[in-house]
Amino acid sequence: MTSTASLALDVPVTGDGTLPTGTPGSSVRPPRRRRSRGGADGGQTWPIVALVVISLFTVAPLIAVIVLALSPEDAPTIPYALPSELTFDNLVRIFNVGEFPLWFWNSLVYSVVSVVLVLLTASMAAYALARKRFPGRNLVLWSIVATLMVPMQATLIPTFIMIAGWGGVNTLWGLILPTLANAQAVFLIRQFVRDLPDELFDAARIDGAGEWRTFVAIVLPLIRPVLATLAIFVFLWHWNDLLWPLVIGQSDEARTLTVGLASLNTETVSNSSIMAAALISFIPCLVIFIVLQRHIVASITSSGVKG
Amino acid sequence: MSVPTAAASPTGRAAGRPGRTASRRREAIAGLLFVLPTIVIFVVFKFIPIGGAGAMSLTQYRLNGDVTFLGAENYTRLFADPHFWQSLGVTLGYVCIFVPLIIVVSLVGALLLNRLVRASGVFRALLFVPYLSSFVLAGIIWKWIFAADGPLNAALDGVGLGPVPFLTGEAWLVLASLAMVAAWKGFGYSMLIFLAGLKAQPAEVHEAARIDGAGNWKSFWHITLPLLKPVVFFVLVIETIVGFQVFDTIYVMTGGGPARASYSLIYFLFDQGFRFFDFGYAAAIGIVLFAIVLILSLIQRRFFEGKDEQ
Amino acid sequence: MTRRHLRLAAVAAAGALALTACASNGASTAPAEDGEVSGEVTMWMYPVIKDEAASKEFWAGAEADFEEEHPGVDLTIELQPFAKRDEQISAALAANSGPDLALVTPDMAATYLNVGGVQPVGEAIDDPDVFYPSTIEAGTFDGEVYGVPIFQNIATNVVNTKVFADAGLEIPDTWDDVLEAAPVLAEQGIAVMDYAGTTEQTLNLSFYPFLWQAGGSVFTDDGTDVAFDSKEGVAALEFLVDLQEMGGLPADSATASITIEGSPWAAGKVGIHTNGLPAELAPLRAAVGGEGVEAALPFEDEIRATFGNPGLMALTSINKQQNREAAYAVLEFLSSKEFQTELSVASGNFSSRTDVPAPGEGADYETLEAALEYAIPGEPNPAARQVMAALAPYIQSALRGELSPEEALDQAADEARGILDRN
Known about the structure:
Chain B: Residues 1-22 are annotated as: Disordered. The structure holds three protein chains of three kinds. By secondary structure, chain B is mostly helical.
């Protein structure tokens, strides 16, 4: 995982384990409280103006990508002129440049499989670490948490050598496996499971539910909010990851979109094709954001900082 | 399977009773089974590579698998290597531009959003959206924006400021350009953390200040910011660590150039590892990076523990 | 995320895993039947044909043609970008996973041989005499041939004749001519020549030709030391730095890439494009309006010299014994007269075979053919690529005025000697 990947969720963890604070089961929502400062809407003009300016700064480059991606290949375009017509030619053609469809598929597999496996293994571990007593439990927990302080780049070389030794270079499993060790996920889910009410588990025990059934039927449904949040972030980190896929996916069979995009950014490919590829790579993230915006914002605002 | 009295008190000290012991053992076995996949994953992909990095950094490890034990030679070579110090200087320079920049931008964004009564959701989304992009995508866009014949220089030309060599000029300009790209991509996240911190501040304090006649600026400086200090510190450390690991934008935009002006620590590691195949030496660079991040993390942890004791 | 979404994701994940499993199972090779060659061969090819679509079509066709001739062999040709080619192949060798065959330059072959990354291919060459001797020699180390030449590259000057005609100047042929023309053109905002200083560009196509023209070399004859910090080396770098200072190079030469689109050449602000490849002639001509562009011999100073390497198809250490015969079959196919003729026409490069005609007719190709006489195939040294990576940023520093030519080359030489010591 990239630097940001391993860091993004340091936030909750380094807050010393006080989160998430919301009652498990009730979904984490952004605070809806509205505080009126300065009374009426009178004081609202200049913050809105300032925000419009900042929004231009954040959004204009992305709009430019869309315009360039939809511009005819040889037409003069921004900054010198606006395209006279818009076309989907670039988006269609990009699927013939290099092995673009394969890269897209690899990115999708890398992200989706990682999300599923990380969430599954981490919730199982989190359940055991929060609810089961077994010898060495604290040692396991703190060893996992301690790995948060090890940047991924520090272990890049030995991990590469190890995967290479197993023949995992240029394979999707070689790409995915080392990224499954996600301490943030374990830690975050553990906090959540720990705060579930004891009565639920007592009731399950009295009903004679087995361990696996308790986990699947009681724990998993209750921790859905935290799983949804993690799913989004784990997806984003993998989808946007560069360094690990770069060293492990040298060949098209395992090259991801980010690595492919970085390699397109040279020589023979026209600017409009590159922008078309860039646009396509961004669409899944945008869709996820639009659909699940509530969770992303809620997770950072509610669990980001101890109050 | 249940012993009612024990179930009622999970911390019960009912050891010695046979049913209790059996249930305990079952619980321990179940717990271990549930945690086993994670243990295996972490041992294989974290602990072994960490040990491996330490061990490899003491050897010369060649492309064809030949290993020679070197002792501390990689480290003495590293500390005598001008490129190491140069990359450390480049990285520090980058961090010194990037961290203040991203903190100011995200803090300003959060303060503005916090003041909004209406439409804050829309603006929050608009400001957050670059966070969804990859550094590769950000690098591609901004490389085009910064180009000699790109839109930014076209605009600067229009007002007579001439072409600015954002990615090919002086070292500080290149680093500032790279820092700007990373801040553009990353500030949405820190902004939301600041926003959460602001929302958590008690409204009464601000009301009191207002009644006392404190102006916006004064109230920010004397009330909002001091209350926000732990959050600022937190974001500071996180973004410093992010800054130390800068790689993707450099890989896409400058290739470490021009003339090593953006040759960062991770780029140095990548070059030594995957261009020169000096794996042992690259591992030693990784260990140094680890030490830096560890120190930063410990400062952070210490700070938060200190806060708990108060 | 609802439960249904999660289930969908899980199904997708399971499907993906099944697919990857299939992919890795497919790697096993069927045993040979009745003498028929069989096996799987992966080959990494690069944009020797500049046009992306044409390149794709050509190599897909080559793959199909070969498999028709050898139904037992599964050939996969992967098209890779030139940028970071060295890192990519090295990583594949380190991982022992990747191409059986890869297109390399002689100095890359030497580097990989040093770590056991390439294997001899002599057995795949039926008759060495059909090739130009230099193309075979370039890949021969210790009496073994480590690369089958599939084409002969040649870099030379490409001139925008209009620039010189307008200024009333002769087309420069020597360094002195260049230095004389530079200030005249600089007055009109035109650079007498360009220089691709980006570290992505191989020094074989930027600094080294000037070094050779000055009479210098990268390595000493026995290859145990670097020699680019000699007075010839300093002269070569001084030539470039002086030109830069007098406006004889475009302002951004220290970082310039080889992209034609949007370059000073395309704006008509460059007199001579240095180290142009045959395949670049047409796009260079098109970029300035379709005429007034011609190939010229490389510059002369102490000697007349340029870079011209055979494209070597090397057999990597990744190739397994059971795929050996199949890889030989591919190499034989690639070196056949028929294939080399097609490649030569498609790429605009000369063939490595004496019995294949030049890729085109007319003055340009006569000049290119004449330039072949001055071609140096690079200096094959096990540390060639590492030394190149160390040297390139120092040349940038000198062009940017941060270091004097002597300082830059001295510091680069110190670093390069460290690399040689460790090798």
